[in-house]
From TrEMBL:
Pfam families: Glyco_hydro_28
Keywords attached to this entry: Cell wall, Cell wall biogenesis/degradation, Glycosidase, Hydrolase, Secreted, Signal
PANTHER family assigned: PTHR31375
UniProt superkingdom: Eukaryota
Protein name per Swiss-Prot or TrEMBL: Probable polygalacturonase At1g80170 isoform X3
């Protein structure tokens, strides 16, 4: 499809089914309520209450030093702060962040204000011994916001080149999702550039009430499986005013998701907007109440589609 407005008003897709209750746990212990003594903060500069600069936790922000520990410590403090907390990534800095998990529950709302750049390690070996599907992983957080006009860069090139979809002599393996929100509620992610993810860019799994807006999600058309926004087992997700141009689906929606609104997005190049694949290995899966309203798809492999697995016969 080239540059044509697909749906003048809207395309509601309703699949009615029974939604069963969801019980998933975060994969590690909640540690955020461990109090980090505030005396460890650098107080030589005056700081507003509840605003935490990554540099005050030892981050160098030079794009070369490992800033992972600084982010983990900033998270511990912000997440146990009694009122709204903001972690600031200044515009002039590039932070190198290795795979990490940031867990809730937090005492109050937490915002990551990303004005600068967050880079992943280029080398897939940085994941040795770690879960290859995760880079920035948020779990069990209520009222979490990512914003700030900055950039999150998955540095995915080496992952793509080692994919079996690029070169069939490579073994097939999983690659990280750049940003995952798992079991989070009231998530906002807006005004960010998310580029070159190792695999999927932004995923919401088992989340409730999400708004993703004013995002630019960009990766080359040849990059394998680099879905823009992936929604799984989540309810009440709005994706709006965003530009998504990757090597796979702009938005993909899989099992047990409902009340999904995709509004005013530009999609392409990419594979389009997909529900599924649903029902792998004879399982049943339900997706219901999906609305796409105001999407411009250009240079996409498909428009909007539903993908299902076939029944297996004996
Ligand atoms: C605290 O911040 C100031 C100003 O940025 C810096 O010069 C100083 O080295 C920092 N101190 C510590 C202990 O990090
Ligand atoms: C970077 O820091 C994290 C957290 O301290 C650590 O787990 C990781 O091994 C470090 N990576 C390298 C390459 O130094
Ligand atoms: C695919 O990978 C193999 C083994 O690493 C390499 O020899 C070959 O040149 C690669 N092919 C392409 C087209 O890059
Ligand atoms: C959907 O829910 C069913 C029943 O709880 C579960 O077996 C299945 O794994 C879920 N699917 C997804 C994609 O979460
Ligand atoms: C898959 O489900 C269908 C319909 O219930 C059934 O006929 C078929 O035998 C099942 N196949 C397997 C391999 O379980």
């Amino acid at each position: 499809m080239k540059g044509q407005r697909l749906w003048p008003s809207s395309l509601p897709i309703f699949l009615f089914t029974v939604l069963t209750s969801l019980t998933f746990e975060c994969s590690a212990e909640f540690d955020s309520l461990l109090q980090l003594p505030l005396s460890r903060l650098n107080t030589t500069r005056p700081r507003s209450k509840g605003i935490f600069y990554l540099g005050d936790f030892g981050a160098k922000g030079d794009g070369i030093s490992n800033d992972t520990q600084a982010l983990m410590e900033a998270w511990k403090v912000a997440c146990s702060f009694p009122t709204r907390a903001r972690i600031v990534f200044p515009a002039s800095n590039t932070f190198l962040v290795h795979p990490l998990e940031l867990h809730g529950p937090c005492r109050s709302r937490v915002t990551l204000r990303i004005h600068g750049i967050i880079n992943a390690p280029k080398d897939p070996n940085a994941w040795a011994g770690l879960n290859p599907r995760k880079w920035l992983y948020f779990c069990g957080v209520n009222h979490l916001t990512l914003e700030g006009g900055g950039e999150i860069n998955g540095m995915g090139y080496e992952w793509w080149m080692s994919s079996c979809k690029i070169n069939s002599t490579n073994p097939c393996r999983h690659a990280p999702t750049a940003i995952t929100f798992h079991k989070c509620k009231n998530v906002k992610i807006h005004h960010l550039l998310v580029i070159d993810s190792q695999q999927m860019h932004v995923a919401f799994t088992n989340c409730l009430r999400v708004v993703a807006s004013n995002l630019k999600v960009i990766a080359p058309a040849f990059s394998p499986n680099t879905d823009g926004i992936h929604i799984s087992a989540s309810r009440g997700v709005m994706v709006k005013n965003s530009i998504i141009s990757t090597g796979d689906d702009c938005v993909s929606i899989v099992g047990n998701s409902s009340r999904i609104l995709i509004k005013d997005i530009a999609c392409g190049p990419g594979h389009g907007i997909s529900i599924g694949s649903l029902g792998k290995q004879n399982t049943s899966a339900q997706v219901r109440n999906v609305r796409v309203d105001g999407a411009v798809l250009s240079n996409t492999k498909n428009g909007a589609r539903i993908k299902t697995w076939q029944w297996l016969c004996h």
